[in-house]
Structure formats: structure tokens, C-alpha cells
Amino acid sequence: MTPEPIPVPETGRRCPEPLYGAEFAADPAAAYRRMRRTGPTAPVELSPGVRATLVTGYDAALHVLRSPETFSKDSRRWRDMADGTVPADCPVAPMMAYRPNALLTDGPEHRRLRGAITESLGAVEPHALRGYVERSADSLIDRFAASGQVDLLAGYAQPLPLLVLNQMLGCPPEYGERLVEGMAGIFGLVDAEKANELLTRTVSALIALKREKPGRDVTSRLIAHPARLTDEELVHTLVLLIGAGTEPEQNLIANSLRLLLSDDRFAGSLSGGSLPVEDALDEVLWTDPPMANYAVHFPVHDVLYEGTLLREGHPLVVSFAAANTDPALAGEQHPGNRAHLAWSAGPHSCPAQGAARLIAAVAVEKLLDRVPDMELAVPVQDLQWRPGPFYRALAALPVSFRPTAVTTAVDGTVDSPVTSAAEGGRGPGGGGDTAGSGAAGAGLPTGDGASTSAVRRGSAPDRGLRGAPAAAAPASGWARLLAWWRGE
Ligand code: HEM
To answer: Does the domain formed by 17-485 have CATH 1.10.630.10?
Structure first.
């Protein structure tokens, strides 16, 4: 039943703000400022002709996220999709169309699917996870260490999360490569339909393999979980984990590296005993959250919220980025205060926050360890952001540095299927098919600058970090950060 429209006081806006295109990508904060003028919600277009309401206020965001009885995640309620106003193949459909997974279900169904995820991810030891990240990071750094330049996005931040996830899921290398190919397709690099099919086939094959030969990995735990996920639910849960665990993670790593490489504040307070890497992560989570606008909800009936009619079945998109920078929060956005919404809030908040943060922190710390004198290769204001409504994602992060030797400190069991696939080749190594394998003994940066994997293995003095030519007087924030990291 659709009640008669409730009259809404006109306040001058009503022209939907486009959340696509170069202008929004270049300066989303300006769009959020414009939208805030007319209240905590505003009409937007996610792609041409795809209408939604963006929630820009912090309190309004919390209200939506914490009222599952009024705002549903089930996108089968999306009216414009159901009646054909929005075509099924519109560019934002892959991020919004219904699938039987935790992200897009409500109530008991959601709790069942989410419970299996939370417990399976929770069983991954932080120590093992650090090992996965360090080995993945080492294998990627080895690919560019001698060249003196790299696009940190394509060469590091992008492939690393998938390498780590492959290990968490217990993916044999050849499966890892196919997953990469599938993911690349989903993100628009090749035929999306074919890619989706490849991804589904690969994930199904992984499930079959783990049914036959379970390991100490997330896939095997999901299969064995008392929630008894069906094969279809297992496939969609794994695809969700791969999607949710890669793109936002790469953006957290890249956005944090951008900040550390361009902002002297993070090097300025090093002697004060603060933790600049953690501070940079906090700042990015407040000001450039990797997932900028998402948590799509559908009102289950018409709702009048602060003078605006939110129609049943009309998508409400929560702007974590706008909510975090809501002027009402002035003074809250400081390191250590983790009240930001970068992980969302309420029943669908990210179940992998601890792991996600750890992966990003270790990824940044590894670069500090191994790549001295890194500098942005272009002025920070020339860096381009990828257009799109959902992510705050750099298009590239080119850096230069003094070439440094490849270390053999890594045990060689992780190679980069991403790079291999991109090169059309096959990675010789693999993630191993059991969680925890090879992780023991991997070095764990402690944040005190004294304990690094390379140093502990004793191989670094002549090849890696300590063997690098002495840096010139630290000029950039990164160089000073590095000096602190080295304990100098
Ligand atoms: C920096 C990295 C990450 C960020 C910023 C992030 C952020 C988020 C956000 C904002 C949501 C809510 C989305 C929504 O309601 O529409 C979410 C949900 C989710 N995330 Fe993460 N995430 C990250 C990493 C990960 C990782 C590494 C995994 C798993 C390996 C993961 C798994 C999930 C899952 C399964 C959900 C759905 C939970 C539910 O609906 O109950 N995320 N994440």
C-alpha cells in the first residue's frame, strides 16, 4: 500500500546530486557540504537515472543503521528495480542487487548467516594473520624493490588484500588466480557476466575441495558451522567475503599511505611516542573512509524523517564520509576516538574490523621496513580519485624511492596471483591451503621499531632495510616516519 505523499516543506534543493562522474570524485566534500544545507538527507543519483536518498547527518545515519525494523537491507524491496525503472544491468546493480548473503538479509536469516561469518573469521589467529600479511607484502615488495618506482595502488595496496584473503580462505594457488580474474571482471576490467560465472565456479570448486579435505581455514569453518549453510549460501558468503575484504581494504591501505606520504603531521610527533601508523588509519577512517557511501537500506513503509519523506522501497544510502565530517561532530575527529562510522554501525556493521585494521597496519609497517626514502612521484593534489558513488578510492599512487635489493627473507610460499594474472602468467607459489601454515615464525612488527621480520631473520643487514644506503637528512614526513620506525 502506498499512502498519499506527505507534503514536504520545500527548502530549495530537490535536484538530485550526482554521486558519479569526475566532479564528485574530485571533491566529494563539496557535494556533502551542499547537501547538508537542506538537512540530514538529500536526493542523489548513484548512476544516471538511479535515484536514492543520501543520509549525510551523523545522528540520522545512526538512526537508519540502528532501526532494522523500519529500514531493511533486503534489496528485493527496491521499487525502481522491481518495476523496471532501473534496468537490471545498471552499473550499480552488482553492489545492490539481492543475493542470499548476510549483507542483504534481515532478522533471523541475517543473524544465522552473520554468525557463521563472525565465528569463522574470529577463529583466525591475529598472529597467523600478521604472518599472511607479512609474507604477501614481502612477495609484492620483492617485485618492485629494485626498480625505484612503483604505483603503490596497482603494485601493493590492490593485490595485497586478495593475497591475504586467499590464505585465510585456504585457497590453492590456481584457485587464487581464478578468483583474481573473476574479481577483476566484477570491477569492470573484463566481461562482468563471464567474470561472475568464473568467480562462482571457482568458489564452488573451492567449497567442493574443502568438503573433501577440510583444513584450518575460513572456508572449512564456514562449511562445518552449525548454521548449516546451503551450497548456495556458502557460495554467496564466500563471494561476499572476497568483495567486502578486498576493495575497502585496498582503499584503507592506499588512503593511509597517501596521508603518510604527504602530511608532515605524522612525522612531527614521532618523538612523543605516538603511533603514527595507527593515527593515520584513524584519520583516514574519519575523513576518507574507504567505503564512503553504502549501507543501502529500504524503508519498509513511508517514513517522515525530519521533514523529509522517505518512501517505502526507495534506496537510502548512508554516507559514512559525510556523517563522519558532520559539523555537529566538530572536535571529535581525532586519533584514538573511534566513534566514526567507517565500519558502519548496528546489526550490519563490519564483522572484520579487527582483522581489517591489522591487515592495513601491517601492510603499511612492512613498507616502512623495507622501502626507505619513499616519496610521492607527483604532487599530492595531482592524485586522481576513481569515480563512483560507493568507494573513496585512488586511481593510482605513484611513488619513487632509492632502489633496494630484493630480500630472500620471505620463505617464498606466497606469490602474487594478481600480478601473475595481470601478466598473463602463473604464480609459482601459493597461499597454502591451511590457515596457519607458514605463519608461525613470520616476523611481527611490534611498533617499537626494533622488531621486524627481516631483522629477526638476520638477512636484512646486507640486503634489506639496514643495508639500504644511508638516507639523506630526512626531508619528508615519510622519511622522518621511517627514521622513527628504525629507532633512529
Ligand atoms: C578496511 C577494510 C574494511 C572496511 C572499511 C569495511 C567496511 C564495512 C562496512 C562499512 C560494512 C557495512 C556495509 C553495509 O551495511 O552495507 C561492512 C560489512 C561487512 N564487511 Fe567489512 N570492511 C572492511 C574489511 C572487511 C574484511 C577484511 C572482511 C572479511 C574478510 C569484511 C567483511 C564484511 C562483511 C561480511 C560484511 C557484511 C556484514 C553484515 O551485513 O552483517 N570487511 N564492512
So the answer is: yes
